[in-house]
Automatic annotation (TrEMBL):
Gene3D superfamilies for the chain: Tetratricopeptide repeat domain (1.25.40.10)
Pfam families: Sel1
Name of protein: Sel1 repeat family protein
SMART domains registered for this protein in UniProt: SEL1 (SM00671)
Top-level taxonomy: Bacteria, Pseudomonadati, Pseudomonadota, Betaproteobacteria, Burkholderiales
Sorted UniProt keywords: Signal
Length: 231
């Protein structure tokens, strides 16, 4: 089988701190004196290397109810950038961020459980969180869900569902998913065999830079031409 898309190899600890999703400042009160902090300011504090200051500011944003405050604070715990990293607290923060509607947090929870951060890997929980993120448009999660169904990891092996989710990710431009759904159409795996659709997706993958896709497209072209009696 071809190498799976790189999304599955991404650890939660490699995810960047989230960027602001809303315009306008978020004002909160410091514990000791009136003060304001925005997500932009907290991110700038982090980028300056003031990790203690960033931790305090993300804590303030988290207490205020900002999902990105929860998420970024969780990432600092996972990365070991706070004095007392706590994987269980990180999980709770990510769960709260996901409950507050942050799709990236659901994706990170899938990675958290898949990698077994702070405990043992739990592929069933990972698939559950990936599915939540996939249903809300996360392309990385769609690839992860598809691959779980393809391999039977954390879910029963289900080629039609694998094809469904690879197709969704392929439509969004994921080159690995484009190659894999092309392969499934070529072989009739989980879908009705369709060389024209296989050719379409190999072509998309080739245009997006996949090294192997041009050769597969050429082979499909030859097969289609032969079946049409043109060579």
């Amino acid at each position: 089988m071809r190498r799976l898309p790189a999304a599955l190899a991404t650890l939660a600890i490699s995810l960047p701190l989230a960027l602001p999703l809303a315009t306008g400042p978020l004002t909160v009160q410091a514990a000791t004196a009136p003060a304001t902090v925005t997500l932009d300011q907290a991110l700038a504090t982090y980028e300056r290397g003031d990790l203690r200051g960033a931790e305090r500011q993300f804590q303030q944003l988290s207490r205020q109810g900002l999902a990105l405050g929860d998420y970024n604070l969780a990432m600092m715990h996972i990365r070991g950038e706070v004095p007392k990293p706590d994987a269980h607290l990180a999980r709770r923060l990510l769960e709260r961020a996901a409950e507050r509607g942050l799709v990236r947090a659901a994706l990170s929870l899938g990675e958290f459980h898949e990698q077994g951060i702070g405990g043992k890997p739990d592929l069933v929980q990972a698939q559950a969180w990936y599915l939540k993120a996939a249903e809300h448009g996360s392309v990385d999660a769609q690839v992860a869900v598809a691959t779980a169904f393809y391999l039977g990891r954390g879910a029963e092996k289900d080629f039609p569902l694998a094809a469904q989710w690879y197709r969704e990710a392929a439509k969004a431009g994921d080159v690995g998913a484009q190659y894999l759904i092309a392969s499934m159409y070529e072989r009739g795996l989980g879908v009705e065999k369709d060389l024209r659709l296989a050719r379409y997706w190999y072509d998309a993958a080739a245009r997006n830079g996949d090294d192997a896709a041009p050769f597969k497209r050429q082979a499909i072209d030859a097969e289609l031409a032969a079946s049409a009696g043109t060579i």
